[in-house]
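Proteins fold reproducibly. Next comes a concrete instance:

***
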Amino acid sequence: MSIQERTGVTFIVVSHDQEEAMTLADRIAVMDKGAVKQVGPPGEVYEHPASRFVANFLGSMSQYEARVTKVNGQNAEIEVPAFGRAVQAVTIPDLVAGEPLTLAIRPEKLTIHHDRPDGPNVIEGEIKDLAYFGKDSLYRVILPSGELLSVHAVNAKRKGDKRPDWHDRVWISFDPASAILLRD
């Protein structure tokens, strides 16, 4: 049991260490130049950043210029030139067709495949480089546009199983709910 839980006293911890803030706090405030950019539980701020600044501040994230092509209820079609195609995303409030925005996605929300999977959000690429960490790997995939996409994969299978390797052609997929749409 922590000191805070035993005493019931509210603590304010100021830190530039993202991991420390995310693990210690039940609410965090992200600030930029003295202005509060977002306040909320760590999971909410990480999964639903309110701006590019907050998205970049907490964890790593790939970001691409995009434009809304269609909004249909809770779903939106987003044209992403770096992907060479449109993808599907869960909409955000007041989203309209033609609106420019940033599509952001965290490396751990992507899945890497040898063969093209089914689904609306599938992108082809080539593994430019990778870092093997034992329990997980980080792949940097170059897209046909020349843009890079980072993919974090847990190494849940034994070494004998075929894992993507340097220069392999691969397919990257993601759930529409994993796409983050940012206006600023």
Helices lie at 3-7, 18-24, 42-47, 52-57. The longest strand covers residues 62-72. The mean pLDDT is 91. Residues 107-173 form a domain with the OB fold (Dihydrolipoamide Acetyltransferase, E2P) fold (CATH 2.40.50.140).
